[in-house]
Each structure stands twice: as structure tokens, then as C-alpha cells.
């Protein structure tokens, strides 16, 4: 599923990056230590942590896109940092629960490895 399709499904907006990027799996968490522990490269990171740390963690793990949920104002500093890191950023007003449900129902799969 493309970033553009993801944005449509979650009634969100693409703040920067590649709208044609193809994503097959996702991980959802506000704990960046969980991302470091079990996320895979080339997945979508869904988070409510509106900080540069989410983008930095995505970069370290090889995650090409971050979807911020519970959108408040996403600081321009985060968007600019994501541009520097070549990370696509989306935002939605939906909760994490509803965002994940909508994406799962439309075919987005979870990461292969679960928390042990």
C-alpha cells in the first residue's frame, strides 16, 4: 500500500516525503525502545510520540516512514529533520487504536516479530 493510500485511509496528510513509497507492514508504539528491539526495516512506524526521537529511531532501524497519530501541531523542526533523514512523515487526528484498525482492515500487516 502506498503512503498516499495510507493517508487516505486514516484521513491524514503527508507532511513530507515520498507519497508513492510502498509499505507492507507496520509497527505501532510510543516506546522507541520497542522499535529498536523488534521493528524491521521498511515498515511504517505509527506513533503518538511527536518528537525528533521518533524520526531518529526510524532512521537507525531503517524505517522509511513515520505516521504520527493524535495529531496536534507537528513541529516544523520534526518535519525538517525528517526531510534531512529522507524519512516520509504523515499525520492523522485519529487515535492509534483506530489508525491501526483501519490500516489492518485494509491489508497492512504487522511486523513479523512480536514482543517476546
From TrEMBL:
Write down what this protein is called: DRTGG domain-containing protein
Domain DRTGG per the UniProt entry, residue ranges: 5-102
Q: Report which superkingdom the organism of origin falls in.
A: Bacteria
Amino acid at each position: 500500500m502506498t503512503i498516499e493510500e495510507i493517508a487516505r485511509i486514516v484521513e491524514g496528510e503527508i507532511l513530507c516525503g515520498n507519497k508513492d513509497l510502498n509499505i507492507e507492514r507496520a509497527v505501532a508504539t510510543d516506546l522507541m525502545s520497542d522499535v529498536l528491539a523488534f521493528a524491521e526495516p521498511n515498515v511504517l512506524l505509527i506513533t503518538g510520540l511527536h518528537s525528533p526521537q521518533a524520526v531518529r529511531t526510524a532512521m537507525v532501524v531503517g524505517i522509511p516512514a513515520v505516521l504520527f497519530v493524535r495529531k496536534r501541531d507537528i513541529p516544523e523542526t520534526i518535519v525538517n529533520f525528517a526531510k534531512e533523514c529522507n524519512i516520509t512523515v504523515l499525520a492523522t487526528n485519529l487515535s492509534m487504536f483506530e489508525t491501526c484498525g483501519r490500516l489492518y482492515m485494509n491489508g497492512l500487516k504487522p511486523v513479523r516479530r512480536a514482543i517476546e
